[in-house]
């Protein structure tokens, strides 16, 4: 429960506990229900052994409350008995919509007579005993809210206890107001008055010691209490503690007695719940303590007359009360009855002390929780930093096995995971290969799991792509595998906490990763998030590794082809040997390229290797840009020298590179002069952008399965420079190059984004921290605002951490100044403008003593223009201001607005008070004079100042602005409720409108108040 709600409930309970009569209590309960809900009728119903008594009822709008003094059972037309009797076992509030009930309920005599639309019942229980109901009735089509019912439910147990206590302790009335005989145990009217006074004073005490002194000072007027004490149970020490005994007007030292002491009247009274009544100690003590021996040292004088009564809270004993006298026969049955009655008030007061202590403990717990959250944020930052390094380690491996063990080594430093496994899907065998299986640091042999084994959590995770998180394996196993049975023969060997995550790659699900621990609830949410990040890194690394293995397969295929050629062409041994060397070179090239993470290094590596295989007098790799529709050649080389960068457009029919990539066509030319028209339309010619015109030309497209990468070209100034073998080698190099360039481009893009994000984040963080510190220092303190304007609320929600919307309050000479300001900038610029605005308000009002709102805005306009040099530069910063001056001396409220309006609600009507349609500052050329509106404080009106951020917020089903009209209706619909509830309504409407919208459109500020409080 929130601390604010608990504190409010405690205050209400303390107020209710001051009531000394059942009628008084019922009246306060009815008023409470009417103030906290929109109920039209409220009734208090008492349970009498399964039958029901209507004790009191009240109507909204009427101050009189009807009390039913007799204890006769309710008639059928007084209560909906057919409904109530069905709710006797309910422990929670029940709302009955009478438009949806059956004919039997509709035939109820009360329902036919009163024709309600809704009936709401809040059970009043003391533990399992039903004391009665609180009934809230509605004839309108709108029922009371669930939130208001929940609040009443919070205080319902305390109401039940108070009703129960007052029902038991209130003495029955005597006929003709005659004083009852003392033997009957009935208190006189004078005693009842004194008892009531004592009860009221007890309710205001804050400690047991203060309570003892209060009772002692009052009780001697109606009973001989020469000695008085109250003992309170200390559960931890199992003893009764007496913190403030009084004898003959003096406070005695603190003392206590163990609950195990059998030779004490206090422990006898407490343990047996028995009243002790002695008028001659020496003669009667053995009636209670047969084996009495005066062994315990006595605090105070020897007494002869004693009364001990237990103090009961619900059905539990929480202490004892005693009055004692040195006289014999000092007490009567009436005195016993009086002390018993007084003990019920003591029980309520002690219960209040305990509730207050619980509230303080919760506040201390909140502080501890906040500190823990700060520590968690620090750990989270360290973890994120480590994850970045781990990601680099994992993704730098091209071996699947090495990826798995690198992941384990990294993960073991962040998560306590004695059991760790990674499974990779083997498509050919339709199994899950467990490539890493580690238990308590020991590597276990690899194994395989069939995909047909539906009784494995790993297969379930892989097939459904679902995360599996288990904190108690034995109890939660069947939730995931309902048809499987867990082997629990040796439960100590079973892990109790288990996480399975799927490993996702470009082509789909690659496998799974799992961490397990022998302890229950071993993994926190932070551990799960760490594992998710590592699973992403593993997926990326496995993609790269599988791609690399694919390249090895391509190389293997080429090797087989070359081997076949060797068998067919044994006579050309030198050629075959050279081919083999070329294949080895391709393998080396593949390894080198796979570790290159920049486009320049890929191009350089390819050129060095191609130049060793063939005549590459001219060499180039062109990178395709889909957005710009051109091919960009960076680092092209001719005769050993780097050429300047150049571009070929994709629609240029004279460029062989464009034809090659656009048509996905290999271009192999041995003599450009003879073969040019095989590629260029007749009459056309090849344009050479950079360098000389070659004779032999090869252009090959670079592409992966998913996208176009570019082209690779080698050119020679000799005719017939390239053999089929060299063309084939270049094809293989093209495959390797395409993959390497794609990886490099993606890596460079990620690195750029990472650097940009880090730089931007650092700048923004520094700016916001500085601006937040400044703005926090200048804004008025909320406590100060409540002191000068008690009946008010502020809903302030910055778009960023700091805000361009701010509020200003000031009080002097019986005037209260209230302003809301909207700077035309958000974030840090807006925050800086708020500093200027606050400073100018202070200068104009506090130093220059200008008090009229229109004159303040005139002065503000002049000072902003001068302050920002707007007459001589193009600065257009401006402020929209709503300003009210509450003049308590003249009993008026004055309003002036700069490009703003004020809302006013009075007598159920809504008014918009428009300000002058001009902003403060902004380099306006025309002189502006601001208008003033004046209102009397005799009106019980509500006022609202606001900026335009609320209206602008995008949201709702249509993703549209909230709008001015909807905003005004929302304010009007919440007229008449407490300002704190009004703020809740404003906040809830805003959050509901945003819903899943991630971006707040503008700074938001809404300020509401009543000026005559």
UniProtKB/TrEMBL annotation:
Transmembrane segments: none annotated. The keyword Cell membrane does not apply. Residues 207-360, 399-552, 598-751 form the GAF domain. SUPFAM superfamilies: GAF domain-like. Signal peptide: none annotated. Pfam families: GAF_2, SpoIIE. PANTHER family: HAMP DOMAIN-CONTAINING PROTEIN, STAGE II SPORULATION PROTEIN E-RELATED. This is GAF domain-containing protein. It comes from Flammeovirga aprica JL-4. The lineage of its organism: Bacteria, Pseudomonadati, Bacteroidota, Cytophagia, Cytophagales.
């Amino acid at each position: 429960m929130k601390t604010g709600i608990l504190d409010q409930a405690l205050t209400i309970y303390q107020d209710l506990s001051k009531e000394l009569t059942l009628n008084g209590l019922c009246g306060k309960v009815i008023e409470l229900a009417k103030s906290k809900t929109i109920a039209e009728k409220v009734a208090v119903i008492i349970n009498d052994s399964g039958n029901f008594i209507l004790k009191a009822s009240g109507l909204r709008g009427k101050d009189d409350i009807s009390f039913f003094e007799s204890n006769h059972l309710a008639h059928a037309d007084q209560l909906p008995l057919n409904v109530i009797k069905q709710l006797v076992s309910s422990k929670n509030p029940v709302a009955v919509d009478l438009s949806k009930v059956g004919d039997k309920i509709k035939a109820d005599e009360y329902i036919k007579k009163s024709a309600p639309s809704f009936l709401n019942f809040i059970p009043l229980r003391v533990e399992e005993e039903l004391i009665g109901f609180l009934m809230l009735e509605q004839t309108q089509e709108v029922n009371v809210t669930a939130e208001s019912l929940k609040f009443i439910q919070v205080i319902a147990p305390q109401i039940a206890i108070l009703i129960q206590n007052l029902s038991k302790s209130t003495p029955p009335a005597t006929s003709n107001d005659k004083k009852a005989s003392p033997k009957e145990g009935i208190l006189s009217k004078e005693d009842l008055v004194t008892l009531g006074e004592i009860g009221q004073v007890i309710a205001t005490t804050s400690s047991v010691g203060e309570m003892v002194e209060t009772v002692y000072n009052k009780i001697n007027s109606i009973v001989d209490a020469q000695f008085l004490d109250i003992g309170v149970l200390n559960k931890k020490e199992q003893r009764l503690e007496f913190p403030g005994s009084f004898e003959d007007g003096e406070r005695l030292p603190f003392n206590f007695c163990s609950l195990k002491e059998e030779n004490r009247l206090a422990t006898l009274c407490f343990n047996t719940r028995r009243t002790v009544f002695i008028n001659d100690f020496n003669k009667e003590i053995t009636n209670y303590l047969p084996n009495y021996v005066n062994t315990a040292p006595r605090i105070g004088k020897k007494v002869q007359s004693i009364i001990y009564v237990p103090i009961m809270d619900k059905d539990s004993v929480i202490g004892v009360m005693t009055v004692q006298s040195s006289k014999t026969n000092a007490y009567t049955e009436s005195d016993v009855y009086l002390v018993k009655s007084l003990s019920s008030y003591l029980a309520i007061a002690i219960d209040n002390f305990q509730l207050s202590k619980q509230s303080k403990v919760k506040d201390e717990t909140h502080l501890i929780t906040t500190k823990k959250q700060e520590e968690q944020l620090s750990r989270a930052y360290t973890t994120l930093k480590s994850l970045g390094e781990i990601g680099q380690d994992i993704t730098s491996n091209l071996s699947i096995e090495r990826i798995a063990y690198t992941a384990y080594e990294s993960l073991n430093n962040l998560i306590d995971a004695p059991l760790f496994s990674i499974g990779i899907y083997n498509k050919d065998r339709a199994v899950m290969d467990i490539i890493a299986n580690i238990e308590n640091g020991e590597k276990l042999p690899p194994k395989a799991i069939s995909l047909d084994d539906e009784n494995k959590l790993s297969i379930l995770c892989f097939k459904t792509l679902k995360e599996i998180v288990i904190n108690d394996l034995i109890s939660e196993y069947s939730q995931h595998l309902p048809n499987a049975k867990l082997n629990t023969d040796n439960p100590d060997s079973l892990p109790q906490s288990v996480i399975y995550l799927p490993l996702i790659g470009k082509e789909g699900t690659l496998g799974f990763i799992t961490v397990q621990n022998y302890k229950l609830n071993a993994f926190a949410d932070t551990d799960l998030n760490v594992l998710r990040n590592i699973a992403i890194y593993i997926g990326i690394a496995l993609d790269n590794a599988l791609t690399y293995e694919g390249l090895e397969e391509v190389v293997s295929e080429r090797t087989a082809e070359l081997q076949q050629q060797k068998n067919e062409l044994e006579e050309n041994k030198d050629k075959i040997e050279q081919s083999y060397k070329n294949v080895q070179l391709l393998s080396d090239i593949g390894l080198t390229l796979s570790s290159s993470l920049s486009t320049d290094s890929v191009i350089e590596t390819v050129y060095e290797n191609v130049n060793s295989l063939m005549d590459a007098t001219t060499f180039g790799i062109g990178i395709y840009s889909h957005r710009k529709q051109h091919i960009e050649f960076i680092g092209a080389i001719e005769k050993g020298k780097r050429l300047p960068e150049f571009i070929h457009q994709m629609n240029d029919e004279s460029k062989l590179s464009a034809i090659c990539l656009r048509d996905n066509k290999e271009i192999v030319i041995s003599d450009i002069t003879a073969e040019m028209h095989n590629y260029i339309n007749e009459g056309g010619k090849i344009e050479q952008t950079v360098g000389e015109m070659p004779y032999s030309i090869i252009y090959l497209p670079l592409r992966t399965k998913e996208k176009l990468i570019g082209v690779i070209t080698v050119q020679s100034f000799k005719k017939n420079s390239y053999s089929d073998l060299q063309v084939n080698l270049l094809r293989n190099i093209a495959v390797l190059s395409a993959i390497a360039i794609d990886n490099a481009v993606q890596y460079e893009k990620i690195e750029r984004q990472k650097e940009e994000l880090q730089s931007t984040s650092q700048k923004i963080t520094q700016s916001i921290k500085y601006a937040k510190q400044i703005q926090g220092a200048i804004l008025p303190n909320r406590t100060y605002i409540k002191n000068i304007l008690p009946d008010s609320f502020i809903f302030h929600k910055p778009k960023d951490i700091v805000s361009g919307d701010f509020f200003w309050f000031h009080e002097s000479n019986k005037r209260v100044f209230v302003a809301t300001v909207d700077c035309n900038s958000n974030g840090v610029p807006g925050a800086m403008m708020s500093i200027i605005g606050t400073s100018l308000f202070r200068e104009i009002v506090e130093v220059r003593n200008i008090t009229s709102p229109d004159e303040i805005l005139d002065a503000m306009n002049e000072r902003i223009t001068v302050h920002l040099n707007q007459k001589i530069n193009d600065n257009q910063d401006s402020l929209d201001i709503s300003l009210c001056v509450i003049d308590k001396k003249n009993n008026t409220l004055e309003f002036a607005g700069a490009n703003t309006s004020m809302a006013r609600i009075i007598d159920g009507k809504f008014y918009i008070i428009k300000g002058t349609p001009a902003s403060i500052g902004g380099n306006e050329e025309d002189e502006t004079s601001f208008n003033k509106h004046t209102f009397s404080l005799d009106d019980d009106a509500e006022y609202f100042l606001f900026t335009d951020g609320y209206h602008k917020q995008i949201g709702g089903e249509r993703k549209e602005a909230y709008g001015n009209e909807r905003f005004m209706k929302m304010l009007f619909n919440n007229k008449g409720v407490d300002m704190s509830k009004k703020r809740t309504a404003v906040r809830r409407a805003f959050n509901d409108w945003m819903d899943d919208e991630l971006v707040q459109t503008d700074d938001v500020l809404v300020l509401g108040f009543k000026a005559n409080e």
